[in-house]
């Protein structure tokens, strides 16, 4: 049985990595898709790879830093499909730089993309779901949204902020049959570290060893779709790094000592 048959699923950050893999997983579940990212040529490639009819995939380029455009983008989706059943906020950027070497402009950029962009799109879509009295909103946080790691202070801050916002949102909308799922991946084999920004705003350009050894985006996408399908509030995806969440809760001193040695290599 296809769990998202004919459901309209909007995925941001859909041109690569976790987002792209999740597009294909939802396609197998019978969803009609809205795929968004900045690179339209890559979105067209992803659309072709879904093997869905052209009418079932809307390519909708978005720059999450241009948040004033979001209401118009929502209208485009409604004009094309008539509803929005799932919003998966997946677009984001990481960081590789110490606090002392990170320009304030870098912190503003990371917060604008990872937090304010997500909040703005969620707020643009929320009235649609409230009117429908149904819907699912998911967001890619991180294991780093539950603890702090060196060289990622701005990234961790944005992910911690997402938990506060979406936990609050969930408490407000549950009576309206709207589910909120926070996705917390650990090390996934994507280019997130390659595309991360350094302290001066330049591209990091290197794959972290832990990232290279991470689980596949496809396995991650399967867990994400399963979590959204059952309405799970929060899901941790990865290998031994997931244990950090429980160490933080029960043995915070031990986790602190471990984190001191976690400079990305």
From TrEMBL:
InterPro entries found in the cross-reference section: NAD(P)-bd_dom_sf, Sc_DH/Rdtase_CS, SDR_fam
Keywords: Oxidoreductase
Gene3D superfamilies, per the entry: NAD(P)-binding Rossmann-like Domain
Pfam family, one: adh_short
PROSITE patterns, per database record: ADH_SHORT (PS00061)
Top-rank taxon: Bacteria
Entry GO CC: membrane
GO molecular function: oxidoreductase activity
Family: Belongs to the short-chain dehydrogenases/reductases (SDR) family.
NCBIfam families listed in its UniProt record: PRK06181.1
Protein name per Swiss-Prot or TrEMBL: SDR family oxidoreductase
Species annotation: Emticicia agri
């Amino acid at each position: 049985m296809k769990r998202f048959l004919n459901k309209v699923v909007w995925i941001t950050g859909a041109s690569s990595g976790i987002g792209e893999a999740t597009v294909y997983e939802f396609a197998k579940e019978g969803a009609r898709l809205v795929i968004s990212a900045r690179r339209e040529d890559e979105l067209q490639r992803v659309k072709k790879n879904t093997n869905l009819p052209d009418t079932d995939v809307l390519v909708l380029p978005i720059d999450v830093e241009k948040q004033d455009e979001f209401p118009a983008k929502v209208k485009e989706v409604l004009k094309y499909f008539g509803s929005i059943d799932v919003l998966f906020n997946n677009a984001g950027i990481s960081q590789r730089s110490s606090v002392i070497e990170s320009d304030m402009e870098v912190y503003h950029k990371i917060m604008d993309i990872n937090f304010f962009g997500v909040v703005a799109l969620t707020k643009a879509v929320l009235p649609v779901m409230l009117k429908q009295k149904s819907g699912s909103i998911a967001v890619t946080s991180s294991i780093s949204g539950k603890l702090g790691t060196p060289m990622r202070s701005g990234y961790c801050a944005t992910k911690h902020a997402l938990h506060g916002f979406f936990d609050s949102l969930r408490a407000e909308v549950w009576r309206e049959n709207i589910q909120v799922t926070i996705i917390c991946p650990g090390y996934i084999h994507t280019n997130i570290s390659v595309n991360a920004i350094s302290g001066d705003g330049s591209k990091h350009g290197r794959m972290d060893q832990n990232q290279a050894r991470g689980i596949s985006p496809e396995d991650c996408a399967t867990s994400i779709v399963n979590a959204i399908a059952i309405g799970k509030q929060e899901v941790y995806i990865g290998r031994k790094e997931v244990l950090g969440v429980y160490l933080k809760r029960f043995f915070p001193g031990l986790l602190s000592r471990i984190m001191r040695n976690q400079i990305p290599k």
